[in-house]
Design a protein that fits this description.
One of its GO terms (cellular component) is nucleoplasm. The radius of gyration is 26 Å and the shape is elongated. The chain is 40% helix and 20% strand. The chain is α/β, with parallel strands linked by helices. α6 packs across α11 and α14 packs across α15 (398-410). It has helices at 6-24, 57-63, 83-99, 136-145, 198-201, 210-218, 225-235, 259-269, 280-283, 286-290, 294-315, 327-338, 373-383, 389-396, 398-410, 425-439, and strands at 32-37, 43-49, 68-73, 105-112, 122-129, 154-160, 166-174, 177-188, 248-253, 273-276, 321-324, 365-370, 417-420. It has an 8-stranded antiparallel beta barrel. The chain has a 5-stranded parallel sheet with strand order 10-11-9-12-13, sandwiched between helices. The protein starts with 5 loop residues before the first helix and ends with a helix.
Length: 441
């Protein structure tokens, strides 16, 4: 009799296990992997599934008690082109401005799928309430309730259960009610070979051609009137241009490394035309675009390079041309901003993101002015000028500065030749002139 009843008992047990699993996470749900930037500039990875396991102690300290942590990820609305990315980037920036006023700590969070597919990364935040205030979840849900429903971010709450497993509960608002719509166990996963955002860099913040950058600003016309003006200027530039017979030399470098002094001295010594990127025809709109998310800001600067290229083609038929910053700086700051964490997470050398756009006029030589961080800060203090957003970040975050410097050095086709800008301006100019002469031999 006991054996006869065994199949029925097993079926009951199976149904209970399945029911318990469904309360934790939907059956056959695709893996949901996350990467969070920890305070020491390293990344920790975890996934959500139907079973739990021991986490990296550093990650457990960020997600578990004491205190309580929350995840906030901005979904990508369905649709082709770059429209969903622009919308998600604007939503992320809006949330960042509002979250800065809260009592919680915050770190960058990425949600990504297996295999590193392009377009699969969702950006967001890991929020930690050290005091585990009972009203925190409600405050966050209230914040999300003010967002458009179609683009409303997901709010997750981390909680340690009675069995010692860390769970991730997904919450939403239904009217005035807080409703739990999912629950999953937090489990460790190995780090992917490359940073999860790398597949999304090309044509989202580093543009491989003019049309890709234009597509972003075309999505912005309704809320940034200046976007149409930039597009009109770009459309007036011919797509097929060639450099003239005279040399084109680009000077790159961080602020206060002496670019202005070198470019002005070079233009006098070589009787060259001095150009700047972005050019004067759009520089009056820099502040407008500097206040936009990275994808919009970098599209603006990328199109500025094409406007400069048109002028380079014209001027290089008559004299040498010196350019104060060009494509390398546009791409470098985009990569260093988007790739969170330390130097080890940058795209590896020879990655396609370091390659020059195929439709952008190429210079003969790119010189990168360098100096020690201490001396550069001294020069900045002596200038007394208003700091740009990027310069403020460079000064406050040594990891960001190191990433910018390393990215500059990995640029290819053409690569940057390093110039020590620490000596006197006369010595630096002589060094630069020698490098130009050597490149022409």
């Amino acid at each position: 009799m006991a054996l006869a009843g065994l199949p029925s008992l097993l079926r009951q047990l199976s149904r209970r296990l399945c029911a318990r699993r469904r309360t934790c996470t939907p059956a056959m749900a695709p893996p949901r992997c996350f990467a969070v930037e920890l305070p020491d500039s390293t990344l920790a990875h975890f996934a959500l599934g139907d079973t739990g396991d021991l986490l990296d102690p550093r990650l457990a300290a960020q997600l578990g008690p004491p205190g309580r942590s929350y995840s906030l990820c901005v979904p990508l609305t369905p649709g082709g082109g770059c429209g969903p990315r622009v919308q998600a980037a604007r939503m992320l920036q809006r949330l960042l401005l509002q979250l800065c006023r809260g009592p919680w700590q915050q770190w960058r969070l990425f949600r990504y799928g297996p295999g590193g597919q392009a377009g699969a990364v969702q950006h967001g935040f890991l929020l930690r309430d050290p005091g585990d205030h009972p009203d925190t979840r409600g405050s966050l849900l209230e914040l999300l309730g003010s967002c458009p429903e179609a683009a409303r971010p997901h709010l997750g709450e981390f909680e340690l259960d009675a069995q010692g497993l860390l769970r991730h509960r997904l919450w939403t608002l239904q009217g005035d009610r807080q409703v739990q719509v999912d629950c999953a166990c937090v489990l460790p996963v190995p780090a992917p070979q490359l940073h999860p955002v790398l597949p999304d860099l090309l044509n989202s913040v580093v543009f491989t051609d003019r049309d890709a950058a234009k597509a972003v600003l075309e999505e912005c016309i309704t809320f940034i009137p200046e976007a149409q003006k930039v597009l009109d200027l770009v459309d007036q530039c011919p797509k097929q241009i060639q450099k003239g017979k005279f040399k084109v030399i680009v000077i790159e470098g961080l602020d206060a490394t002496g670019k202005t002094t070198v470019t002005q001295s070079l233009s006098k010594s070589l009787k060259a035309v001095l150009l700047q990127s972005p050019p004067s025809c759009i520089s009056q709109w820099r502040k407008t675009f500097d206040n936009q998310p990275t994808i919009i800001r970098r599209a603006f600067y990328s199109l500025g390079n094409y406007l400069v290229a048109s002028k380079i083609a014209e001027e290089s038929t008559k004299s040498p041309v010196i350019v104060d910053r060009y494509w390398h700086s546009t791409a470098t700051y985009a990569i260093a901003t988007e790739v969170s964490g330390g130097l080890q997470y940058l795209p590896p050398a020879h990655h396609p993101v370091y390659q020059w756009p195929g439709d952008l006029l190429k210079p003969d030589l790119v010189l990168l002015l360098t100096m020690s961080p201490e001396e550069r800060v001294q020069r900045l203090q002596g200038r007394g000028l208003e700091k740009t957003k990027e310069e403020t970040e460079l000064e406050a975050n040594s990891v960001f500065r190191q990433k910018v410097e390393m990215t500059y050095q990995r640029m290819e086709n053409p690569s940057c030749l390093l110039v020590d800008a620490s000596p006197s301006k006369e010595v630096v100019l002589e060094t630069v002139l020698q490098l130009i002469q050597s490149a022409g031999q």
